[in-house]
Amino acid sequence: MSVVTRRHEELHETIEDELPDAILDFDEHHNAPAVVANPSRVDDVVRILKQNGYNHLSSVSAVEYDNRYESVYHLRRITDDREDFDEINVVAPADPDEPAVETVSDVFKGANWHEREAYDLMGIRYDNHPDMRRILLPETWKGHPLRDEYDVDQPQYTTLEAHANPIEERYEVENDAALDTMFLNIGPHHPATHGVLHLKTVLDGEVVVDVDPDIGYLHRCEEYLCERLDYKYQIMPYPDRWDYVSAGMLNEMAYARCIEDLAEIDVPEYAQVIRVLAQELSRIAAHMLAVGTFALDIYGELNVIFMYAFKDREIVQEMLEDLSGQRLMFNYLRLGGVAYDLPEPRDEWFGKIRGFLDDLPGKMDEYRSLLEGNELLRKRAEGTGILEPETAKEYGCTGPVLRGSGVGYDVREVDPYGYYDELDWDVVTYDGCDNLSRVLVRLGEVEESARLVEQCVDILESWDGDREIQSRVPRSITPPAETENYTAVEGAKGELGIHIVSDGTEKPHRFKIRSPCFSNLAVFSELAEGEYLADMIATLGSLDLVFGEVDR
Amino acid sequence: MVTFNDAVADLLGVDGFSPLVEFIVGIVGASIVVSVMLTIIGISAVWLKRKWNARLGDRIAVNRIGPAGLMVMPADALKLFSKEVVVPEDVDRIGYKLAPMLAAATVLAAFAFIPFGSGLQIADPETGLIFALAFASLSAVPVVMAGYSSKNKYSFLGFEREVAQAIAYEIPLVVSALAVVPLVAVFADTSAPLRMSNVVTAQQGPLLGVTGLPIPNWFIFAQPVAAVLFFVSILAEFSRNPFDLPEAGSELVAGYLTEYGGVNFVLLFLAEFAAIYFGGALFTALFLGGGSGPVLPAVVWFLGKTFVFYLVVQWFRATIPRVRIDQLLEFGWKYLLELTFLNLLLTAGILWVVL
Amino acid sequence: MMGVLRSLGVTAKHALKGDTFTVEYPDESPGISPRFRGTHKFSLSRCIWCRMCEEVCPNGTIDIKTNEKREGEEYNLNLGQCIYCRLCEEVCPVDAIILTQHFELNAGTKAELEYNMDDLMDVPWYKGMDPLEAREPDRGAWIGTDEEDDVWETAESTYAD
Ligand code: SF4
Ligand code: SF4
């Protein structure tokens, strides 16, 4: 009996002992066992699990069934010991007419936003939630779009009055002290928000005393989109559009992993190596962009780091174009493999990659001397935007943001997939917990990715076996009804997870995207409050948000 | 060194003009200076800046219109001047409209005291340096007007920063400039060391001690510390990177410029670039020997040096991050101020001992 | 301060080298990979009206109308909403629809991007390209060597009835 299974048994007992009336049942999801909890006691169950080491709430997703709603919590255990990695799900079934579940936002602060999203899109009410507002859609929206009964054609009329200063109450002048502050709308169109983010900021002089991110300006309901497309072909182009700045391959892998796991599809080894190669190139490109835009936020326009980063990203972009046929919207991965073999002539393409890899150390030196070595930048980025590791875990931060706080959680490492386990690489962490650390993690990861790419190229160059790029995949993929799976991969910004609930057809019943940027942004107000305005902007840059992924 | 009017009188072989003629000749001189400066600013703001930044950032930049893209200047001017002037509803109209004019006027007027060499200097009062520095500090006033009258929160933050910054860096600017004055008195052997023409004259000869070598007696060599401090103060005074906080593109959108468009924007933009050139001209006159240099006429040397100054400023902009407002003020008050005073005292002390 | 000076050195080095990476489009054509997915090429003479492309297209870009004998009557391509995913090409058993390398496409209104069968005959990017050439499409050019069979098989086994 493995450690994990033994632990699950013990856990069953503990939960049953301590909370006999909170547990309704035990269930088995495809990825992990599930505890079916009494909706009004779900916070206690999650608390017990947290005490037992499940310290990371990946996502909260809401599912609609004929006779009930379900609020599903995916918990993970993050430790330094890889053997210890483990997952567990908690399911809280809710009444079909008036769905209500107890909030877990007092156990995990990160649940706050996730529950607001579930409320917004599925209409599950979370009792005792501190801030039960819509999050993606406008406050005046009618209906909950992911419900079956929702009429997509229904008009959404909103009178002007309904929109009249929605923030009035919140920042009403209460006393004279409040007169010293200034309310400032940053965004949705602002040079530093990297897209469409609206920050409702209250400034005291130059110091930020309160900031409330308002998201949803780029919401396209990608989840609904995927729910009406078939598993085999049609969903694959869409992940490219979540984190749309070069990270497409990584997003595609998130989808591929989830459904390959669920439908038990094998991937030929050759294709796996190509997948790693493609993903790591993608990661290099995405991190280059992140570093460049961070510099843009601190330096202002016309700075050169941004240009250098773009130049280097462009080289990677061209290699990816050769491979997949497009620069950003790759649509390259397929269930059971990849779409095409490497471009011909192969030597030329390998030569391009090797040329890039050879130049990379010199370029990294330049970046380091421009960023890490520059005292003025250090003065700006060091010790600002402090994210303590405990806070980061509370909020479910992942990726370079978490690793910049010294926690070495990397899905590739703890929950390996594809070919990563066969290759030699390290998880990069810095424990400065500040803006600079987060950027340095990205620089370090570019180098690690380059190592991985080099190994893949070596393997592919000397490959003499069968070049099988796709395994035999059934004509149509129909996982059995009511099976659930949650898997994640290490996207460019962190743990990118997909939760699929099937209903026995070839389209998913529920397709939930756990976006790393969403959780990373949720922690933003903790980082920014008390900082100077300029540092708040820098912090925003260091979180590396892409709004295609935050808003989906 | 003589002013423009004296030079013209010399040329015509007359002793002096009647007040009216004096006035007319003065106007002509001023027009020449302003046109020269406007051309230079046009070239550099619109074209050189793009080209040079592109070069630093591995790009090409403008190259479509005219040879090397030079015709982008008239094209840009045409575009900007033909734009509709949009005045936001709630602005304080007087301040809003006055600010751009004032901004351009103060900076251009300041050029009157600059000894371009070859007789091109409009006014050369005995206290020229102080006048020039006074005009430099005047540049904060239109910014405040623009920021306050715009009734925009970003503009507001921008002008607040400008005020704090101008106050903090005013004194170091003046004091670091004053550090050359004793040297002027010594080298030019004059009792009017604040006169700009004397400042330049003092730097004409070779540097003391190394007479054999052709190192000119520019104060950047005689007073290197003052030169660095002055350079930093100039950057801060005219809000250039790393001190460009009043505009801070990524934080304040465009700072005090946020609500401006069309012609009004052009004037503010022009004032901003003119200010860099004025800074460059001051630096050239004070530390780079003004128009001194072999072969070419003095005015060419002078303008060349200001161009170099400009390129350096843009180079800094591309490479050095913007500091934060508290760091900026801390640096200004806690270090720069002390250092400049120390330098002034040291200079005076050394001269006192030596002479 | 040494770090700042070194940074200045780095940028100065770039300025002195003067390398550029700008592509002077349209004077210079941007490097388009052989696999690039651009606008479509449709061959009426090859199409067997199996409607597989219509079915696989994730967003209804392709709209086919057939008569009751399942003979094709209309083939409409609303390029304005195409996401260039190349799935239609991937599933088409006879290569009647292919994504070309052409990427320059503009229109004044959305409606101008809706092409029907006749429009597709003489869209600009067909110029100098014989649609019938699709009979022997150079698949090797973008798929790579000897993968031809595999792709054909996958396509056929997927959506064939
Ligand atoms: S490329 Fe994709 S979106 Fe476009 S027509 Fe083909 S299948 Fe449809
Ligand atoms: S898949 Fe090919 S053959 Fe079938 S209808 Fe479409 S274009 Fe015609």
UniProtKB/TrEMBL annotation, chain B:
Transmembrane segments: 20-48, 102-123, 129-148, 169-188, 215-236, 265-289, 295-316, 336-354
Sample GO molecular function, one term: NADH dehydrogenase activity
Protein name: NADH-quinone oxidoreductase subunit H
Classification via InterPro entries: NADH_UbQ_OxRdtase_su1/FPO (IPR001694)
Topology in the lipid bilayer: Multi-pass membrane protein
Keywords: Membrane, Transmembrane, Transmembrane helix
Organism: Halorutilus salinus
Cellular-component GO terms for this entry: membrane
Biological process, per Gene Ontology: aerobic respiration
UniProtKB/TrEMBL annotation, chain C:
Superkingdom of origin organism: Archaea
Iron in keyword set: yes
A Pfam family hit: Fer4_7
Cellular-component GO terms for this entry: membrane
Sequence ranges assigned to domain 4Fe-4S ferredoxin-type in this UniProt record: 38-67, 73-102
UniProt-listed GO biological process terms: aerobic respiration
PROSITE patterns per UniProt: 4FE4S_FER_1, 4FE4S_FER_2
Keyword Thylakoid on entry: no
Molecular functions per Gene Ontology: 4 iron, 4 sulfur cluster binding; metal ion binding; NADH dehydrogenase activity
Region feature Disordered, mapped onto this chain: 137-161
PANTHER family linked to this entry: FORMATE HYDROGENLYASE SUBUNIT 6-RELATED (PTHR10849:SF35), NADH DEHYDROGENASE UBIQUINONE IRON-SULFUR PROTEIN 8, MITOCHONDRIAL (PTHR10849)
The protein, known as: NADH-quinone oxidoreductase subunit I
